[in-house]
């Protein structure tokens, strides 16, 4: 056996610009921070991010109108706590988009790996569960809008 493996060169994925109010969304950051590996084609990642952006911006449309009426041109300008030099609202916006995109990918591409042990499968279940990621995305949206959130689990 040789030590060479065939790989496909990954093309650079351009950031997604929504409009001047929202920050750009980076497919590279999404892949890195949300563990979306190269087995997901760039087109699939792009579709998931666009779908999530549509959902998030639709849900925030009234909020954005209110902020723009108050004279804020970007989400980063809206008064908010600064965390690591970044607006809390910007962090939550990106989190909402990335989580909903991850949910879309998890629901679309179920990993069928029967070679793993039951323990390994259970450890990874939350990561591959679309409902988990959708919940995290909706939670981030609720925080942006200042709505109360509650987490309930059936036992």
Helix and strand arrangement:
Elements: H1 27-33, H2 42-59, H3 61-69, E1 82-83, E2 86-87, H4 88-108, H5 118-125, H6 130-145
Antiparallel strand pairs: 1-2
Helix pairs in contact: 2-4, 4-6
Attribute tags:
6 helices, globular, 155 residues, mainly alpha, 2 strands
Report a brief summary of the structure.
With 155 residues, the chain is mainly α. 51% of the residues lie in helices and 3% in strands. The protein has one domain (27-145).
> What shape does the CA trace take?
globular
Beta content:
under 5%
- For the secondary structure, the number of strands is 2
| Overall average pLDDT | 85
- What string, H for helix and E for strand, traces the elements in order? HHHEEHHH
Alpha-beta content class: mainly alpha
How many structural units, i.e. domains? 1
Gyration radius over CA: 18 Å
What is the makeup of the main sheet? 2 strands, antiparallel
Helical segment tally? 6
- Relative helix content: 40-55%
Task: Calculate the terminal CA-CA distance, rounded to whole Å.
Answer: 51 Å
Unreliable runs: none
Strand order of the largest sheet: 1-2
